[in-house]
Design goal:
Helix content: under 10%
CATH architecture of the largest domain: 5 Propeller
Strand order of the largest sheet: 4-25-28-37-30-31-32-33
Number of strands: 38
CATH topology of the largest domain: Tachylectin-2, Chain A
Distance between the termini: 49 Å
Number of helices: 2
């Protein structure tokens, strides 16, 4: 039996002599594996378990940790950052000296780290590493020396415990891969280093070309060396991942990491924008790669939008099934401000204390929706003086939604809200927002059965990073402003045909 297992494993492994990878028949999956705004994925395999985190930017709690056993279906299990430090970029998930760590950038404040004994937490308070640059990645040399690689081909030595940097050890070690000058990109933008030891080689993956801008900007490039000290040799087959045509479904494919299965097959996990739906943010994609006879990873899928053979036995999950439980930090997150005392949940009812005056300054509670067409609704009870509402939110400057105050129903658009109907002074109402392929309409009901469509509508396809900056996305959410508090219950989310 052991001999058979060894023979089977050899069949499944990528051959170092150029043989083909035989993928077991576990069904198929279709990208994205995490639909919606889950950019800059960083992944860790720990035995047969996979853990992933991603940039959280201005959403808080941040650095959600995900778990999977099949690389396709993911469940949130913890969040590593409850303190709002600023916009959180490009984390690196690692296990170092038996400890789980996430290294990450805070825009304008350098690089930080959080630690935990388990991916399920609890996670430590963030620690400042006292180094600038962006997109940190830890790599541990054969002699135990720890290095933090950063954008721009830089690295800096870490202390023996990997929890601080050593002064005076800044080095420029890599120039990147220079792509043809006629390619249409944002620029070189040598970012997102991800280092992986495979056999005798260290592989240095970079995000080049810029993450947004033209649809053919972003890419994953590869270099390798026998040592973390270099020199780094660029792959003759660069880029490993790239959007070649603006008509493709997935734009700006890049910022990738290599990950293997227990039986030795390899995949690249990365992010991309969806053509026509950039307001959903950068979504997480997965595709198989093979190492050729020369030891270079090569893409083996011609169309990442088509069904792909699953890497492992699939365990489907419904990530939106728990939305009505209002799990703050796992499914729901605030815009910037995270005050645990604001929200209380009991028997499926969320009580949200009011703050601010409108969506712009009320720190809405939001979730990620990766669908093209959907609607969401809630039964709402508010105290006098409170402003309650549903929103689809980019940031505190740009949003759309509807609400209710002491004077009637409101339309939210940017930082403005005006009375749109002459309802009586109601404190109990049902609200609904429909997003039908980026066309937004609002509804209300006084009994939860008969719905009235509001007169207004809005098209939001232009709400994205290329127009507004800051790498946000359009997230559905709930808001409570003014005085008092708002109760949300019977929350429902439905995907539209």
């Amino acid at each position: 039996m052991k001999l058979f297992a060894k023979i089977l494993a050899c069949v499944l492994l990528v051959s170092a002599c150029g043989g083909k990878t035989e993928t077991p028949q576990y069904g198929t999956y279709t990208n994205p594996v995490l639909g919606g705004d889950y950019p800059d994925p960083s992944i860790l395999r720990d035995g047969e378990d996979y853990y992933l985190t991603h940039s959280s930017f201005d959403y808080n709690p941040g650095l959600i940790v995900w778990h999977s056993t099949d690389l396709v279906n993911w469940e949130p299990i913890s969040y590593a950052l409850s303190t709002y430090l600023g916009s959180v970029w490009a984390p690196d998930f690692a296990k170092v000296d038996g400890q789980y760590r996430i290294y990450f950038t805070v825009h304008g404040r350098g690089n930080w780290v959080v630690t935990a004994d388990s991916p399920y937490g609890p996670w430590s308070e963030p620690k400042d590493l006292h180094v600038g640059g962006i997109d940190p990645c830890i790599a541990v040399a054969e002699d135990g020396t720890k290095w933090l690689f950063l954008s721009g081909g830089m690295r800096k030595k870490l202390t023996a415990d990997g929890l601080d940097t050593v002064e005076g050890t800044d080095e420029h070690v890599y120039d990147g891969w220079i792509f043809p000058s006629d390619w249409v990109t944002e620029g070189l933008c040598l970012e997102g280093p991800k280092l992986k030891k495979v056999g005798d080689w260290w592989y240095y993956l970079s995000a080049e070309g810029g993450t947004a801008g033209p649809p053919t900007s972003h890419m994953v490039t590869v270099a390798r060396s026998k040592s973390l000290d270099g020199p780094w040799e660029n792959s003759p087959y660069n880029p490993l991942i790239h959007t070649w045509n603006a008509t493709d479904r997935w734009w700006s494919r890049g910022h990738g990491s290599l990950i293997d299965t227990p039986d030795g097959r390899w995949y690249c996990i990365y992010h991309a924008y969806e053509n026509g739906f950039t307001g959903l943010g950068r979504q997480t994609l997965l595709e198989p790669v093979q190492f050729d006879s020369e030891g270079w990873p090569r893409s083996v899928v011609s169309d990442v939008a088509a069904p792909i053979a699953a890497p492992l036995p699939l365990h489907p999950t419904d990530r939106k099934a728990h939305l009505g439980e209002f799990r703050v930090g796992l499914d729901w997150k605030y815009y910037k401000d995270f005050d645990p005392s604001r929200a209380s949940i009991k028997d499926g009812v969320l009580t949200l204390k009011s703050t601010g005056t409108c969506p712009a300054d009320s720190a809405p509670l939001m979730f990620v929706a990766g669908d093209h067409a959907y609607e969401f609704e809630a039964e709402i009870e508010r105290t006098p003086g409170a402003v309650a509402g549903l929103v689809i939110y980019y940031d505190n400057r740009f949003y759309v939604g509807q609400g209710i105050n002491d004077r009637g129903t409101l339309r939210f658009r940017r930082d403005k809200g005006g009375v749109r109907s002459k309802l009586p002074d109601v404190e109990h109402i049902w609200l609904r927002i429909r997003n039908d392929n980026q066309v937004i309409t609002g509804y209300y009901s006084l009994d939860g059965k008969e719905w009235v469509k509001e007169e207004w509508g809005m098209e939001i396809s232009g709400f994205n990073h290329n127009t507004f900056h800051d790498f946000q996305s359009m997230l559905p959410g709930l808001m409570a402003a003014g005085d008092g508090e708002v109760k949300f219950s019977n929350f429902k989310y439905r995907v539209l045909d």
